[in-house]
């Protein structure tokens, strides 16, 4: 088992999942409620227990896909959603995954990577490669200072820092402090919509 897969699998085994709120986050739910074309291909990478995917699927977005490096949250998701297509569930390293999507939902996945230039640049480049022309990357990034602690995941950042990595590959449609975060995350999230260049 690769190091990253082992790391996240151990966190799920030990219920060390403080980021897991147990339901779809309000900003992503309200963004999804504005989408009208239910045939679009959607990917949620680093999906974890994938409450947002469950919400989208039950709302009729039949081409929703989830991706996680650990099998444990995918198994839990399948127990909750036995009708969800198995072929839309992917256990893979994000950087080794391929496909073409209209929309990628970002649920602070960026903030799970050790915050070195190499990882963050690779994230932006690979996200762009997974999107169709005019495809969008939309969702949440944590908005709190990045510390020097390389073990304290999720990692923080700022609008300026994220934009530095995303701008070579994406045009910014909107990227602002999130007004509808859940109470524990008020003031700590940015909501962004980006279109692939």
Describe this structure in words.
It comes from Maribacter litoralis. Pfam families: TPMT. InterPro entries: SAM-dependent_MTases_sf, TPMT. Keywords: Methyltransferase, Phosphoprotein, S-adenosyl-L-methionine, Transferase. Helix content is 29%, strand content 24%. It is of the alpha/beta class. The chain has one domain: Rossmann fold (3-Layer(aba) Sandwich). The chain has a seven-stranded mixed beta sheet, sandwiched between helices. Helix 3 (51-58) links the parallel strand 1 and strand 2. 35% of the residues are buried.
Task: Give the tags.
Rossmann fold; 7-stranded mixed beta sheet; 6 helices; 29% helix
Write the layout of secondary structure elements.
Elements (H helix, E strand, L loop, with lengths): L2 H11 L12 H7 L9 E4 L5 H8 L5 E5 L2 H10 L8 E3 L9 E7 L9 H13 L1 E12 L16 H8 L3 E8 L11 E8 L1
Parallel strand pairs: 1-2, 1-4, 2-3, 4-5
Antiparallel strand pairs: 5-7, 6-7
